[in-house]
Amino acid sequence: MAENKRKNYKSLTDDLTEILLTEQQIDERIGEMAEEISEYYEDKQPILVSILKGSFVFMADLVRKLNIDCTLDFMIVSSYGTKSKSTGAVKIIKDLDIDIENKHILLVEDILDSGLTLSYIKRILETKKPASLRICTLLDKPDRRTANITAEYVGFTIPDKFIVGYGLDYAERYRNLPMIGILNPEIYADE
Ligand code: IMP
Ligand code: MG
Q1: Residue 83's domain spans which residues?
Q2: Is 116's C-beta closer than 6 angstroms to any atom of ligand 1?
Q3: Separation of 174 CA from ligand 1 center, angstroms?
């Protein structure tokens, strides 16, 4: 296969102060998470619910490593806009398509930060009476937690820094970076 000579992401990686997690580190960790998840959900036919947009890359990589029978659904919620700090307000822009009553639900998130988004979504979904509801997040920033919520599956616990890449954005950019990096604070200093 011809090598993609343009694949250096330079204009994007120039905005990072540090690469926190490489493509390979992420891939290996998701493999471990997938094994654990596959074991627990073996006979449960879970519905994996991805919270868009941030978790689309993680969801795509995770589900391809699960060797179990499962279905997928997506929700779009908005809590950030273009700001680098959470406002606390969560709005459902796209709700679930599938009825989740008596079903095993695994919420798939990119990052658990204040926890406000997930605790809100969790409360809404619990009113629909699923058989079980667990949370899987690639990243966890426990230092910033204000809501009382923990994830059953955590990929990496990270420091309180604003990060981008692997689905995570700043003002909708950087989602396509294959690695996760700390965004230079100068990029969002004017906010
Ligand atoms: P929470 O409600 O504060 O937990 O925020 C959750 C959402 O905020 C995540 O799903 C992300 O979309 C976004 N978010 C939180 N921290 C970061 C970050 O460091 N970079 C990019 N997005 C973030
Ligand atoms: Mg998100």
Answers
A1: 24-161
A2: yes
A3: 14
140 Cα: distance to centroid of ligand 1 (angstroms): 10
113 is catalytic: yes
For 8, counting Cβ atoms within 10 Å of its Cβ (0-12 exposed, 13-18 middle, 19+ buried), the class is exposed
Q: What is the CATH number of the domain that holds 83?
A: 3.40.50.2020
Question: Could you tell me which of 65, 152, 146 has the C-alpha nearest to residue 108?
Answer: 152
Q: Is residue 144 part of a domain?
A: yes
**Ligand 1 centroid to residue 5 C-alpha, Å:** 32
Tokens 């926890």 identify what position?
115
Within-domain flag for 111: yes
- Atom number of ligand 1 nearest to Cα 168: 21
Q: Has residue 181 been placed in a domain?
A: no
pLDDT in tens, the chain (191 residues): 455 566 677 889 999 999 999 999 999 999 999 999 999 999 999 999 999 999 999 999 999 999 999 999 999 988 655 455 555 567 899 999 999 999 999 999 999 999 988 999 999 999 999 999 999 999 999 999 999 999 999 999 999 999 999 999 999 999 999 999 999 999 988 76
| Domain count across the chain | 1
For the entire predicted model, the pTM comes to 0.92
Closest CA to 136 of 151, 126, 150: 151
